[in-house]
Write a structure and sequence with these properties.
Its cofactor is Mg(2+); Mn(2+). Homodimer. Keywords: Amino-acid biosynthesis, Branched-chain amino acid biosynthesis, Cytoplasm, Leucine biosynthesis, Magnesium, Manganese, Metal-binding, NAD, Oxidoreductase. The chain has twelve helices and 14 strands. It is an alpha/beta fold. It has two domains: about 190 residues, Isopropylmalate Dehydrogenase, CATH 3.40.718.10; about 160 residues, Isopropylmalate Dehydrogenase (3-Layer(aba) Sandwich), CATH 3.40.718. A ten-stranded mixed β-sheet has the order 2-1-3-12-11-4-5-10-8-9, sandwiched between helices. A two-stranded antiparallel ribbon has the order 6-7. A two-stranded parallel sheet has the order 13-14. The chain is globular, with a radius of gyration of 21 Å. The structure holds nicotinamide-adenine-dinucleotide. Nicotinamide-adenine-dinucleotide binds next to loops.
């Protein structure tokens, strides 16, 4: 099992170190190889995704990724900015399926921005298509408006598009994931306004015929945004396109208390995946030793489950995280009165100690 370890920038190096520590006490044999990515790679090699880093990622079974970015790179030309590394990895590894579980741990219900009774026991899985939609559709650009009331005026435009095979492959992923959970898929669209999403709805309905054991409902994105804060537990698998998924998954993140708790996985058709916390490089707290490493540690658990076929080891990590929270240990982002505040390293050490105690 070969894992490419790409810590990146800011808190990326601190949180990935804790996840690696956790992996190393599992009695599994991994080959871990580290490389620079993002701003760190730009400083060392003049590019956020150097050829050597990309090659390592392509040859690995899985990539454990920290985060990239820093405000000091904001004035670089777009192609050299750290964030381009993550887009490049998604593109070159064909990572079209993004999984973001939003789980509200019992001990953190009070950290959520919603009333505890609305989020207690919350366990939803957001599946977002990651390589299509308006984020990648061509043509795009700026021009002089060719028609309309403001014809001749400068305008900008993007193209929203999805092809049948693109929708089919992500729909299969969603239905298969639902089979292993609550057997319900909510497909989110804007079919009442957008041609692309009427097509999405039609294709998803066709694919559903192969999964009679899974319930399918369709929901408009505006209603889905409302339901996520009104009654989030009504969802099992919430499945949508790239842009709606981007927005809804951040909304769901806040239901769970802290973005520091949220893992994610991006998979291709071969089961190869990139695993990373849902947050960024948090330059405001980088180097202070206070970042929450649990999202990255839980991403490592997802990596074991989805790319390395080690579900038992994944469960061991998830159980260890729950028991550390039950012990009352909290990093600053999830701290509340009556709990014990710890730093990044202490949180990682506590998970390691629980894992050792399990065996
Ligand atoms: P961010 O997620 O880095 O931080 C948002 C807020 O959450 C900050 O207050 C931060 O301190 C806090 N936070 C984030 N992770 C935390 C953790 N593990 N523990 C405790 N607190 C945590 O988002 P931002 O500030 O908008 O962006 C910072 C940089 O990260 C930018 O350069 C951005 O482009 C980049 N970014 C990278 C990725 C990625 O690598 N996939 C994703 C999002 C943002």
């Amino acid at each position: 099992m070969k894992i490419a370890v790409l810590p990146g920038d800011g808190i990326g190096t601190e949180i990935v170190a804790e996840a690696v520590k956790v992996l190393s006490v599992l009695d599994l044999s991994f080959e871990l190889e580290e490389a620079k990515v993002g701003g760190a790679a730009y400083e060392a090699h003049g590019h956020p995704l150097p050829e050597s880093t990309l090659k390592l990622a392509q040859q690995a079974d899985a990539v454990l990724f920290g985060a990239v970015g820093d405000w000091k790179y904001d004035n670089l030309e777009r192609a050299l900015r750290p964030e381009q590394a993550i887009l490049g990895l998604r593109k070159h590894l064909e990572l079209f399926a993004n999984f973001r579980p939003a789980i509200c741990y019992e001990q953190l219900t009070h950290a959520s921005s919603l009333k505890p009774e609305l989020v207690a026991g919350l366990d939803i899985l957001i599946i977002r298509e990651l390589t299509g939609d308006i984020y990648f559709g061509q043509p795009r650009g700026r021009r002089s408006a060719p028609d309309g009331v403001f014809a001749g005026q400068p305008e900008a435009f993007d193209t929203m598009r999805y092809s049948r095979p693109e929708i089919e492959r992500i729909a299969h992923v969603a239905f298969q994931a639902a089979r292993k959970r609550g057997k319900k898929v909510t497909s989110v669209d804007k079919a009442n306004v957008l041609e692309t999403f009427q097509f999405w709805k039609d294709v998803v309905t066709e694919v559903h015929a192969e999964y009679p054991d899974v319930e399918l409902e369709h929901m408009y994105v505006d209603n889905a945004a409302m339901q996520l804060v009104k009654a989030p537990k009504r969802f099992d698998v919430l499945f949508t396109g790239n842009m709606f998924g981007d927005i809804l998954s951040d909304e769901a993140a806040m239901l769970t208390g802290s973005i520091g708790m949220l893992p994610s996985a991006s998979l291709n058709a071969r089961g190869q995946g990139l695993y990373e916390p849902s947050h960024g490089s948090a330059p405001d707290i980088a180097g202070k030793g206070v970042a929450n490493p649990l999202a990255t540690i839980l991403s490592a658990a997802m990596m074991l489950r989805y790319s390395l076929n080690q579900s038992e080891a994944a469960l061991r990590i998830e159980t260890a995280v729950k028991s550390v929270l039950a012990q009352g240990l909290r990093t600053a982002d999830i701290y509340s009165d009556g709990t014990t505040r710890v730093g990044t390293k202490e949180m990682g050490d506590a998970v390691v100690a629980r894992l050792k105690a399990q065996s």
